[in-house]
Specification:
Number of helices: 13
Largest sheet: 3 strands, antiparallel
CATH class of the largest domain: Mainly Alpha
Strand content: under 5%
Distance between the termini: 88 Å
CATH architecture of the largest domain: Orthogonal Bundle
CATH superfamily of the largest domain: Intergrase catalytic core
Strand order of the largest sheet: 1-2-3
Number of domains: 2
């Protein structure tokens, strides 16, 4: 099989497994870049050292390198399962240590400022992200049939990893959607020339609007605002996990670390040690004897 045939067969396997089109496209892009480096040689013949040189040449940070390694590893796991090869050259490549970042919720005053200049669809984007925690890809995938206004719910069907979830409709979100107005059926947000937004295009438009409005945050940081605020309200990490659509609770746990108000109050109330006023200290010069 040629490299292009290998990539195509791997794509079919991913589609059968229900992976998101964006994930499949990303893996195909990375495999084709590796194939270009390999030249006439098969991807199945590459060594660990050659893949490490390839990754070094990408000049990316630890998080992106980790992602590339994971995608390439999945290709070789598939190839072994299909009896196309017997070894995985990525198996012994050391994965970089990726630091877990703290959330960076968008500033509330800046969001109010952005709402004041937002057009109807931009207002919806802000409220969907900040009040309901939607990702850009989920906003792009919204259809009128998913807005269950009679039940006060939004069905999120374009979630990361293919997961579906129900999120309660915030009253402000429903008012903003009605003001668009929403279509009777079909896509809620469409491009000026027609047709739904691709997630990457909606993300670009959303972030461009935020910058123009003076918001020092990305669209995804509005989701951070939702998550940290929701946890502060109820202290229920499982509920936050469900509302965000996280498969792993450890992904959600980072939002509990951000809310330090309760910890600050508890630390400030500690008085279990005697703490009298310190005696005044008289400083004197120390002279070394001759």
């Amino acid at each position: 099989m040629t490299n292009e045939e290998l990539i195509g067969a791997h794509q079919v396997d991913q589609e059968r497994r229900g992976l998101r089109p964006l994930s499949i496209d990303a893996r195909n892009c990375q495999l084709r870049a590796l194939a270009r480096m390999a030249g006439p040689r098969s991807l199945l013949d590459l060594t660990r050292q050659e893949i490490e040189v390839f990754l070094d040449g990408r000049n990316v940070g630890p998080k992106t390198r980790y992602a590339w390694l994971s995608h390439l590893h999945s290709f070789y796991v598939w190839a072994i399962r299909e009896d196309l090869t017997t070894h995985d050259p990525t198996l012994k490549i050391v994965r970089p240590k990726v630091r877990r970042g703290l959330p960076r919720p968008a500033n509330v005053d800046e969001l109010r400022q952005a709402l004041g200049v937002a057009r109807p669809h931009e207002r919806c984007w802000i409220l969907l992200a900040a009040y309901m925690g939607l990702r850009c890809q989920e906003i792009a995938g919204m259809r009128r049939e998913d807005v269950l206004d009679g039940e006060g719910l939004l069905r999120v069907v374009k979630g990361k990893g293919g997961y579906e979830r129900l999120v309660p409709l915030h009253p402000a979100v429903l008012l903003a959607l009605d003001a668009l107005p929403m279509p009777r059926v079909g896509w809620i947000f469409t491009r000026p020339r027609g047709g739904p937004y691709l997630p990457i295009h909606l993300s670009q438009n959303f972030n461009d609007f935020l910058r123009r409005s003076g918001v020092d945050a990305t669209a995804h940081q509005l989701r951070h605002r939702f998550a940290t605020s929701l946890y502060a309200e109820g202290r229920d990490i499982r509920m936050v996990q469900e509302m965000l659509g996280h498969a792993d609770l450890s992904t959600t746990a980072v939002y509990t670390a951000f809310d330090t108000r309760a910890a600050a109050a508890a630390i400030g109330n500690m008085e279990f040690l005697d703490n009298p006023e310190p005696e005044p200290v008289t400083l004197s010069l120390y002279c070394k004897p001759a």
